[in-house]
Amino acid sequence: MPVKESLKQRAYHEIKEKIITCVYAPGVMLNEEALREELHVSRTPIRDALSRLEQEGLISILPKKGIVVSGLSINDINYIFEVRLLYEPYALLHHGPKMQDEAIQKYFDAFSLPVQAHSEEEYYALDDAFHVAIVDAIQNPYLSKTYNWIHNQNLRFRVMTAQFIKARLEQTNEEHLAIVTACLKHDWSLAAKEMENHLRASKNATFDLALCSRNGDLQKEK
Asked: Within this chain, do residues 149 and 102 fall inside the same structural domain, yes or no?
C-alpha cells in the first residue's frame, strides 16, 4: 500500500510545481494566507514548505516585505550552465561505465525516433530522465543534491523559453543521439565531448532568447 503523502510534503510539492512551471512566475509575490486557502492546509505545512523552497533557491523570504519567487537573470543562465558543464561531461568521462547498456539502448531507441513521435511533455520528460541518469551514475549524494537544485532552475528556463526551444528540438534530438551513440560504443571521451557540445548549444539558445525577449520574463542584471 503506498504511503500517504503528508500535508507538509503535499504543500511543498504543489508550491514547487507551480514555481517550476511558472504558474508562480519569477518576481511574483506570494502570500502565506492565500497559499493556505489555495492548498487547504494550516500554517505549519505552508511555512515548512516555504522554508525548504528558500533553501533550494526558488523563493526569497524578505523581512517586512513578504515572499518573492526568485528571478531568473542572464547571470543565472551563466551559473546554471557552468555547473552543468562541470558535472555532466565529467559524469560520462569518469562514471559512464556504470551505466547499464540496456538503459543506454532505451535512450538510443527513443532519440532515434523523429521528435514528432513524442508529445512535447513526453520529450521533455525523456530529456530530463536522460540527463539525470547520467549524473546519477556518479553515485555521489552531495553532488546529486547540488545538481537537483540546478535542475529545478533549468526546468523553469525550459517553461519560459518553450516557444523558442521548440524550434531547436530537432537539433537537440540530434545532439542527444550523438551522446548515446558514443555511450553505446563505450567511447566515454567522445560522449563527454558530445555532451559538452550539447550543453553549449543549449546555453547559446537560452542566451539568444534572453537577449531578445520582450516580455521581461528573463530579467537582465543591471
From this structure: yes
